[in-house]
Amino acid sequence: MKVLDFRSDTLTQPSAAMRAFMAQAQVGDDVYGEDPSINLLEMKAAELTGFASALFISSGTQGNLIALLSHCRPGDEVILEEDSHIFVNEVGGMAALGGLQARTLRGLPENQGIFPVEAMISAIRADNVHYPETTLVCLENTHNKGGGAAATPQEMGEIIHAAQERGIKVHLYGARALSASVAQKPSIAQLLKGLDSVQICLSKGLGAPVGSVLLGDPEFIKRARKWRKMLGGGMRQAGILAAAGLYAFEHNIDRLEEDHQRAQILAEVIDEIPGLQVLRPKIMTNILCVDTRKSQKSGAQWVEILAQRGIRIGANGPFSIRFVTHLDIDDEDLAQAIKILREI
Ligand SMILES: Cc1ncc(COP(=O)(O)O)c(C=O)c1O
Q1: Ligand 1: which atom is nearest the Cα of residue 212?
Q2: Cα gap 155→191, rounded to integer Å
Q3: Taking CA atoms, which of 13, 175, 202, 303 is between 20 and 30 Å from 132?
Q4: Are residues 31 and 149 in the same domain?
C-alpha cells in the first residue's frame, strides 16, 4: 500500500520531466556571474514578481537570513509575528548571526500572518537613547503555522504603507507566496507590490528539489549577494538546480490551485471526525492545521494513529497536527486518504 505523505510540500520528488530539463541545463560559474541558467532564473523571477533584481539561494532559511542581514545592523529590532517561521523555525539565526532583537506581535485569529497595523505602529521604537532602532518589519504569506492563511494585497499594503512612512523596510517570507496569489487571483506582482524584499521557495509547492529566490532592488540584491558569499552560499555550476526552478515556473504555478482544492475537500472530511477541528483562516491554501484537543488525544498520538493506517502527518504543537497537500498527492491518493479517515 502506498504511504500517503501529508507531512509537507517539501517532500515532493522532482518529476521525470523536471529531471530531464535539469540534465540538459547549460551551466557556468555563478560566483563569476557566468551561469546562464541561474542568470535566466533570476531574470524570470524578477519579471514574474515585478522586482528589479533577484538572487538564487539555497533555501528559504538562507534567503530570510540574508534579507535580515542586508536590511539591518547588529542591535536593531525587527518586528515579526510570534508564530512566524523566522522566529520559531530558523534556529535563531537572526540573533546568532545578525545580532538582531525580535519584537513579536500576535497575528489576527482569522489571518495569523498579519498583525493589526495599530499594534505594529505602537511597537515601533521612539527615538530615545535607551532603545534599539526598529529597522525592519517581516510578514509571512502564506502563514505556515496559521493554517496556510493567505493575506490579501490590502492587508499587506496597510502594513507596508505604515512601516515605510516611518522609514522602516518590509520583508516578506513568501515561501508560499505563489500559493497566496493563486488562491485569491491577484497576480503575484500585485500581491508583492510595495515590499522591499521577498523570499520565494522553489522547493515547496513548486516541486523543485532545492532553492529559493530573493527579490529586491539592485542595491539590496548587491548586498545580499555579498552576504550569500559570506555565508558560504556562493554556488558554482548550480544551473542544474536553477533549471528545476525554471521548469517549476513554467509548469507548476497554476496547478497550485489543485492542491488548494484537495486541501479544502480534506478539511471537510477531517472536520467530520469527532474531536478534530480544522483551523479555518479566511483564505485557505494547501496547509491544514488541526486542533486535536477535543479528541482528548495529543498531536503525537494522532500522528501514530494515522501512521498505522498509512497516512503520514506531522504534529505541529502538543494538540495540533498538520496536513499539507502537494504535487505528489493526486486525486487517487486523496480518495484513499478520505477512505482511511472515514474509517476512524
Ligand atoms: C513560511 C516559511 N518560510 C521559510 C521556510 C524555510 O524554507 P527552507 O526549508 O527552504 O529553509 C519555510 C519552510 O517550511 C516556511 O514554511
Answers
A1: 10
A2: 10
A3: 175
A4: yes
The bridge status of strand 287-291 relative to strand 277-278 is antiparallel
Of the residues 201, 232, 251, the one at which a domain ends:
251
In this structure, the answer to whether residues 125 and 259 fall within a common structural domain is no
Q: How much is the pLDDT for 46?
A: 98
- For ligand 1, what atom is nearest to the CA of residue 143? 1
**Ligand 1 pocket, residues with Cβ under 6 angstroms:** 59-61, 85, 140, 144, 173, 175, 201, 203, 212
Rounded CA-CA distance 28/67 in Å is 25
CA-closest residue to ligand 1 atom 2: 175
Please give the Cα distance from 245 to 109 (Å, whole number).
34
Query: Are residues 82 and 227 both part of a single domain?
Result: yes
Look at residue 110 and tell me whether its pLDDT is greater than 90. Answer: no
pLDDT-derived band at 1 (thresholds 50, 70, 90) equals confident
Residues 151 and 82 in one domain: yes
Distance between CA atoms of 306 and 295, rounded to whole angstroms? 14
**Are residues 292 and 198 located together in one domain of the fold?**
no
The residue nearest atom 6 of ligand 1, judged by CA position, is 60
Q: Which domain holds residue 119?
A: 16-251
| Count: domains in the chain | 2
